[in-house]
């Protein structure tokens, strides 16, 4: 590990130690009134595509209960304004620099920015995030949710552990304690809210790549670290797809690294624009790929997704909605996977 890496590891350890006991959920309110939120801050200081996309169900939930509520996001990186481009209630982005030691002035300016505005509610998404808990404590708000897991409701929902769903369940429980009726409807799907123009433009791109009338199966053969399946696995799987589904195009969506585990055997699509990638996938019938940010982006496109899981926990990250499903490849063989694909295409 580099010297800077060691310093960052020590910084994170110290910060977690200092913040682990910060805050408690504030619930004081008049018993004769139902609380109405008009300004909410969501704290998710993370830069990764998947983690930011997993916030979209909570934003939709807030919008459904409080249609006029304005939402600010405390995040890292530059992806959030792109992801939430068509969420008209998302008003401001408070952006924490990814490398605080390289941007100390900006780093401290961000914390002062949080303090400037008064919110009705602050929500910390990740209980384990030191910056998330600290920002929730630091912000001025009448009500605060620090992200504690609530034993009262963990047993009510078999999908409670999912990173996109538990904030919604906790938000509903929190509102119920504040006088709002209990909600039992399905948790909103991950959604990047593509425009009609984005979808139409991507359709034209797909038609240039595979100029025929067949429907398309999209595959994504890359993932980071141990989540990435080997070339032998993907080549065997790709050849089986070609044999089993001759009436479908098989198109590979390439990662930003522009690499392919099948050595570019399939027609391919490449873009660095996450909205363009999502729109492209939205024009396909099925997306197949390992747990990754692009897998969550495929879910956000509202296309059926088969997520391949080997090292990460499907309970926390599985694709859901629109016929999506997680496949544990440790216990599911190739023939069973093909049967699952057939069921999703019929």
Number of strands: 11
CATH superfamily of the largest domain: Glycogen Phosphorylase B
The CATH top-level class label of the largest domain: Alpha Beta
**Radius of gyration, taken over Cα atoms and rounded to an integer in Å:** 21 Å
CATH topology of the largest domain: Rossmann fold
Contiguous runs where pLDDT drops below 50 for at least 5 residues: 14-21
Helices and strands, with pairings:
Layout: H1 3-19, E1 39-43, H2 49-53, H3 56-65, E2 70-76, H4 80-83, E3 90-96, H5 104-116, E4 118-124, H6 130-138, E5 140-145, H7 151-154, H8 166-177, H9 196-209, E6 215-220, H10 231-244, E7 248-253, E8 268-269, H11 274-282, E9 286-290, H12 293-300, E10 305-309, H13 314-317, E11 325-328, H14 334-345
Helix pairs in contact: 1-6, 9-11, 11-12
